C-alpha cells in the first residue's frame, strides 16, 4: 500500500508507542536515531509476557481493465464490483467517504483502493508461519476468485500485471478534504502510482537483528531477479522526481543493510506530513528532517519512505514488509511468495 494502512493498536503494556519521540526531544541526528530504535523495538517490553508465534500476511494489489476498451475501469464499475461482492459473498461495507465505498471487510481482512479506483488491494489476515503456504495462500486465492467474479459480472478483468500502461490517467480516489492534502503535497504526478501493482509479504520478526539479516538476503534476491520490475521502478522514480514535495531520491529503492545505516538514513529524511494530537492530518509548513521535530507520527512517517523492504510496527509487533514482489498472474503470485519465504527459511 502506498498511502493507506492502520496505526498500530494501543497496548496497555506499551505506553506512547505512537509518540515515542516525546522521550527524546533533543534535536540531533543521534537523538533521532535513538528515537527510531526505540520505536522499532517497541515489543521488547512485552516479549517476555507473551509466547512468540511468527505470523505472515499478504497485501495483494490488482489492477482492473475494461474488457471492451482495454483501459482501466471507471469509477462506477469499481463501485459496482464492491457492491456485487457485498451481495454475493461474506464481504461487508466497512467505510464510505462521501458517496464512495472505500473499504470492505471480511473477518480480519479488508479490500481497499490503492490510490486509484482501478487498483484494488486485498489485505489478508495473518497465519502462523508453518501454516501460511497452505492455508494463507489458499485463502488468498479464494478471495481473489471472488473479486475476479465480481469484475467479470461488469465486463472487467484483472490485469494480473504490474503496470496497466496508463500512468497519466487520473483515477485517484480522493473523496474528502483530508485526502486532498496528499494531492496538494504531490501534485498531479500522484495519479501515476495508481497504475502499478505489487505484492507485499508482511513477516513478524523476532528482533531487529533478524530483520536486517532478512533485508540483506532480500536485497540480493531482488537484484538477481530484477525486482521490482523495470517499469515499476521507472514509475516510482518519475513520481519522486516530479512530486511537488521534492522527496529525497533515496526514499525509494533498496534499504540500507545494517541497523546503524538504516536508522541514520531514515532519521535524516524530511517529514512531509504529521498528525496533531486530535488526529488531524497536517502538511508541514516548513520541511524539516525527522530528527529536528520533537513529536512525529512515526507510522505516517515510515509509510512515506518506500524502501523495497522496510521495518514496520503493526499491533505492537516489529514486522518486515517485503514490498518488491511483482504482481503477475496468480500462479506467479504463489510461486514468488513461496520463493521469498524459502529464501528466508520460513
Main attributes of the structure:
346 residues, alpha+beta, Creatine Kinase, Chain A, domain 2, ten-stranded antiparallel beta sheet, two-stranded parallel ribbon, 14 strands, globular, disordered N terminus
How does this model look, in words?
The chain is of the alpha+beta class and 346 residues long. It has a single domain (20-337), classed as Creatine Kinase, Chain A, domain 2 (2-Layer Sandwich). It contains nine helices and 14 strands. It has helices at 29-40, 75-88, 129-153, 177-186, 208-225, 230-242, 259-267, 298-303, 330-343; strands at 55-66, 92-97, 100-106, 109-113, 119-123, 127-128, 156-158, 198-204, 252-253, 270-275, 281-289, 306-307, 309-314, 317-326. Strands 1, 2, 3, 4, 5, 6, 7, 8, 13 and 14 form a ten-stranded antiparallel sheet that branches. The chain has a two-stranded parallel ribbon with strand order 9-12. The longest helix has 25 residues, at 129-153. It is globular, with a radius of gyration of 20 Å. The two termini are 23 Å apart. Mean pLDDT is 88; it is low at 1-25.
Write the layout of secondary structure elements.
Blueprint: H1 29-40, E1 55-66, H2 75-88, E2 92-97, E3 100-106, E4 109-113, E5 119-123, E6 127-128, H3 129-153, E7 156-158, H4 177-186, E8 198-204, H5 208-225, H6 230-242, E9 252-253, H7 259-267, E10 270-275, E11 281-289, H8 298-303, E12 306-307, E13 309-314, E14 317-326, H9 330-343
Parallel strand pairs: 9-12
Antiparallel strand pairs: 1-5, 1-6, 1-7, 1-8, 2-3, 3-4, 4-5, 8-14, 10-11, 13-14
Amino acid at each position: 500500500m502506498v498511502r493507506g494502512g492502520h496505526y498500530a493498536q494501543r497496548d496497555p503494556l506499551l505506553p506512547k508507542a505512537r509518540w515515542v519521540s516525546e522521550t527524546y526531544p533533543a534535536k540531533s541526528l543521534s537523538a533521532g536515531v535513538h528515537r527510531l530504535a526505540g520505536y522499532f523495538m517497541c515489543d521488547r517490553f512485552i516479549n517476555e509476557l507473551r509466547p512468540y508465534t511468527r505470523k505472515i500476511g499478504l497485501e495483494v494489489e490488482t489492477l482492473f481493465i475494461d474488457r471492451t476498451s482495454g483501459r482501466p475501469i471507471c469509477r462506477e464499475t469499481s463501485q459496482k464490483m464492491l457492491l456485487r461482492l457485498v451481495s454475493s459473498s461474506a464481504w461487508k461495507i466497512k467505510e464510505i467517504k462521501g458517496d464512495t465505498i472505500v473499504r470492505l471487510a471480511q473477518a480480519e481482512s479488508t479490500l481497499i483502493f490503492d490510490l486509484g479506483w482501478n487498483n484494488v488491494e486485498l489485505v489478508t489476515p495473518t497465519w502462523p508461519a508453518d501454516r501460511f503456504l497452505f492455508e494463507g495462500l489458499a485463502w488468498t486465492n479464494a478471495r481473489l476468485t471472488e473479486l475476479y467474479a465480481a469484475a467479470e459480472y461488469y465486463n472487467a478483468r484483472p490485469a494480473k500485471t504490474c503496470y496497466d500502461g496508463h500512468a497519466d490517467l487520473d483515477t485517484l480516489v480522493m473523496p474528502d478534504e483530508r485526502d486532498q492534502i496528499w494531492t496538494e503535497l504531490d501534485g498531479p504526478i500522484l495519479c501515476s502510482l495508481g497504475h502499478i501493482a505489487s505484492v507485499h509479504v508482511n513477516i513478524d520478526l523476532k528482533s531487529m537483528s533478524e530483520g536486517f539479516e532478512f533485508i540483506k538476503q532480500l536485497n540480493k534476491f531482488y537484484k538477481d531477479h530484477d525486482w521490482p520490475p523495470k517499469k515499476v521502478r521507472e514509475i516510482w522514480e518519475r513520481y519522486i522526481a516530479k512530486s511537488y514535495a521534492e522527496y529525497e531520491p533515496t526514499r525509494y529503492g533498496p534499504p540500507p543493510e545494517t541497523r546503524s545505516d538504516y536508522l541514520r538514513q531514515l532519521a535524516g529524511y524530511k517529514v512531509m506530513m504529521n498528525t496533531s494530537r486530535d488526529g488531524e492530518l497536517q502538511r508541514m509548513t516548513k520541511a524539516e528532517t525527522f530528527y529536528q521535530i520533537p513529536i512525529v507520527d512515526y507510522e505516517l512517517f515510515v509509510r512515506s519512505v518506500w524502501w523495497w523492504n522496510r521495518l514496520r510496527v503493526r499491533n505492537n509487533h516489529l514486522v518486515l514488509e517485503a514490498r518488491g514482489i511483482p504482481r503477475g498472474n496468480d500462479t506467479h503470485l504463489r510461486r514468488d511468495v513461496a520463493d521469498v519465504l524459502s529464501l528466508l527459511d520460513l
